[in-house]
Amino acid sequence: EQRLSRLIALAEEGICLLSPDSRIWFANPKLSSIFGTTPGELQGKEIRELLDREQVIPLTELLSDKPVHQEFHTRKQDGSELYVRVVAAPYPLDSGEEGHLCVIGDITTFKDNEKALLLSNKKLSLLGSMTRHDIVNQLTTIRGMLGLVHRKTTDEVILNLVEAAEEAAERVNKHIEFSKEYQKAGMQVPVW
C-alpha cells in the first residue's frame, strides 16, 4: 500500500478517484499542478468542473462502464488554456458501488505545436501555390513567344532551336504539375 501510494504521488500523470456522483475523492499532486490548484481544492469537486466547464459533453460519455479515452479543451484555475487527455475506467468501491479511476495528462504543448505546424503548412502551401502560379504564367509567355518565332521564321536552325526550347518549356511545366501533386500528398490525409 505504501509503494502504491508513493507511485501515485510521484506519477507524471494526474490521477484521481471519483465517487459514484462523479466527485473527486482523491487526487494526486500532479493532477492539482496540471489544473493550477492544490489537492485539497480538488477534493469534492465534480470532474465536470475541471474538464468541461461549458457542460456540453454528457458525463456518461466519459464515465461509462468500460475504459474511455477522450481529449478535452478546458482552462486552468488561472484561466489559461489547457488541453488534457483523459483515460477513465470503472473502479469498484468498498461500498459495493462503482466509482471511476481517471488518469489525466496535460497535452497542451502537443496541441500548441500541432496548431503551429498546421499554420506553417498552410503558409508553405500558399507560398508554393503562388510560386507555381507565377512560374506557369512566365512559361505561358515563353511558349507564346516561341510560337510566334516558330511561325515567323523559315530558317531551319532557328526552328530547331525553337522546338528544343518548346520541349524544355513542356518539361518544366510537367515538373510544376508534379510539384503540385506532391504538395497535395503532404497536406491531405491519404485516401484510396
Task: Describe what this molecule looks like in 3D.
The protein is of the alpha+beta class and 192 residues long. 55% of the residues lie in helices and 20% in strands. It has a five-stranded antiparallel sheet. A hairpin with a 5-residue loop joins strand 3 and strand 4. The longest helix is centred in the last third of the chain and has 45 residues. It is rod-shaped and about 100 Å long.
Poorly predicted regions are: none
Give helix % range: 55-70%
Radius of gyration: 31 Å
* Mean pLDDT reading: 87
Major β-sheet strand ordering: 2-1-5-4-3
Order of helices and strands: HEEHHHHEEEHH
Strand content: 15-25%
Secondary structure layout plus pairing:
Blueprint: H1 2-10, E1 14-18, E2 24-27, H2 29-35, H3 39-42, H4 47-51, H5 59-62, E3 68-75, E4 81-92, E5 98-106, H6 108-152, H7 156-187
Helix pairs in contact: 6-7
Give a quick set of tags describing it.
192 residues, alpha+beta, 5-stranded antiparallel sheet, 5 strands, rod-shaped
